[in-house]
Amino acid sequence: MKSKFYAASLVVSLTMGLAPAFAQPMSPPGGGNPFPPGQPDGVATPQYAAPVEPDLQDRLQKVDAMVADRMQALNMPAYCLVIIKNGKVVFQKPYGYSNIETKEPTTNDTIFGLASLTKTFTSLTLLSLVDKGLVGLDDPLSKYIDGLTNDYKPLTIRQLASMTAGVPSKVSQEVDWRNQLDILDHTPLVSAPGSAYLYSNFSYRLLGSVIEKVTGQPYLQVVESTICAPLNMKSTGTVTLLRPTGRVAQAYGDNMGQGPLRPIEYKSPAIAFSAGMLATTSNDLIKYVTALMSHQIISPAGYKTMWDYRPPLTTGQPSKWAFGWAKAYNKNMNAMTLSMNGGTPGIASTIIILPESNSAVIALCNLRKPPVYQVARTAAAIAFGSGTQPAGDEEEHPGQGAD
Predict the structure, then answer these.
(1) What pLDDT, in 10s, does the model give residues 242-275?
(2) Are 356 and 339 in contact (CB under 8 A)?
(3) 2: number of Cβ within 10 Å
(4) Alpha-carbon dihedral of residues 115, 119, 121, 122, nearest 10 degrees?
(5) Which residues, at least 6 apart from 97, have a Cβ–Cβ distance to it below 8 Å?
(6) How far apart are the first and last CA of the chain?
(7) Domains and CATH numbers, the chain
């Protein structure tokens, strides 16, 4: 997969002595190209609003102050935060250092791992194949993958995508995905298919194999042609493929807050596969989230499946998950939210979408520990809610540290 430095500065960063990072218009008054000669044109889909109304400006200033405080209190190395309201970016700011040893400043083009946010790309890609008639949601897994045990053969694509197949949460996490497939023979299901919700990385790796089988192409290549190329996401791939850009954030660990920051290695993309292998920038995620909120890439029926439909369990209880997203009503913001976290050592990522108002919060960090996720939720509460309490709880935001 090719990567290119996306040099255009789309918003004015909020730094000491400069104006707030409230977004600027995509085009200057009177039209014309807002980007300097020699730089790539911007994608028309994301829109940047300026000026913002006084109440929102006050809220965003509080968001910035909160993040600055949390950066210091939590010893966070690098952080990127984006706030979208009514379909327009109203706040985008990088914080800290992408590499604290070299004092490399974080930018909106710094590349962070996504971990389990990758699952949202997998579900979107899968549903594009459903739209084309290449995959049936109620097809058995055995239609696409040979050599399965009797337990796994009848599992449906829908059950795998909604985390109701009974597949274990973790299966030989630290070996290459191809070798993980080999151990299915002695990996029994933990619940009857359709009877319970269980967050499972293995389920989404199986879906990645289905995508490869149907298309005859590597998973990354299908994601590139389905999502990244149409949306001009030129800085999305894996940490390994994007490292030559020189923009990949150094991953850090601190023993979940119990020790000093130390550089660590990212998990191999070959292990995480379609459950957690992707990496990207805040600029590219703006394009991605904007496309999701405007229902691009897949059909309206596909979005209903991905966001609204949660298969009822055989027990009669409601399922917590749709396809890659949790959906819950948030009292603080008086709104329905769609959300997902990504977490593995050196990665903490969050997307919170308020579909009824075309609003969202995007956050990327190169340090994982539970309080880091509260920063994005608190930002959402300040920007869209009635106070400063975090917007939502862990039940509403699966994926934290799960991959």
Answers:
(1) 999 999 999 999 887 778 899 999 999 999 999 9
(2) no
(3) 9
(4) 130
(5) 77, 78, 103, 104, 105, 106
(6) 23
(7) 54-384 (3.40.710.10)
Q: Is 336 helix (H, G, I), strand (E, B) or coil?
A: strand
> Tokens 């969050």 belong to which residue?
350
Length of the chain: 403
Q: Strand, coil or helix: what is 298? A: coil
Neighbours of 189 (CB within 10 A): 16
d(CA 340, CA 370): 14
Task: Provide the 8-state DSSP code for 185.
Answer: G
Of the candidates 348, 345, 276, the residue with the CA atom closest to the CA atom of residue 118: 276
For residue 376, the surrounding DSSP H or E stretch is helix 370-384
Instruction: Fill in the amino acid letter for 22.
Output: F
Query: Do strands 112-113 and 279-280 pair parallel, antiparallel, or not at all (unpaired)?
Result: antiparallel
What is the pLDDT confidence band of residue 4, given thresholds at 50, 70 and 90?
very low
* pTM score, whole prediction: 0.86
**What distance in Å separates the CA atoms of residue 83 and residue 50, rounded to the nearest whole number?**
13
- Tokens 């603080």: give the residue: 332
Tokens of 262: 């130390």
Token couple for 177? 């995905």
Q: Are 90 and 264 in contact (CB under 8 A)?
A: no
User: In a 3-state reduction of DSSP, which class is residue 215?
Assistant: helix
Q: For residue range 52-105, what is the model confidence (pLDDT) as tens digits?
A: 688 899 999 999 999 999 999 999 999 999 999 999 999 999 999 999 999 999
CB 78 within 8 A of CB 102: no
DSSP 8-state assignment for residue 29: T
**8 A C-beta contact, residue 358 and residue 384:** no
Per-residue tokens: 291: 């496309």
Rounded distance between C-alpha atoms, residue 112 and residue 8, angstroms: 18
Alpha-carbon distance of 268 to 270, in angstroms, equals 5
Q: Is the pLDDT of residue 324 over 50?
A: yes
> Quick count: other Cβ atoms within 10 Å of Cβ 317?
11
The DSSP result for 81-150, as a single string, is EEEEETTEEEEEEEEEEEETTTTEE--TT-BEE-GGGHHHHHHHHHHHHHHTTS--TTSBGGGTSSS--T
Over residues 108-124, mean pLDDT:
98
Residue-wise pLDDT tens digits, 283-310:
999 999 999 999 999 999 999 999 988 8
- The DSSP bridge partners found for residue 350 are 341, 363
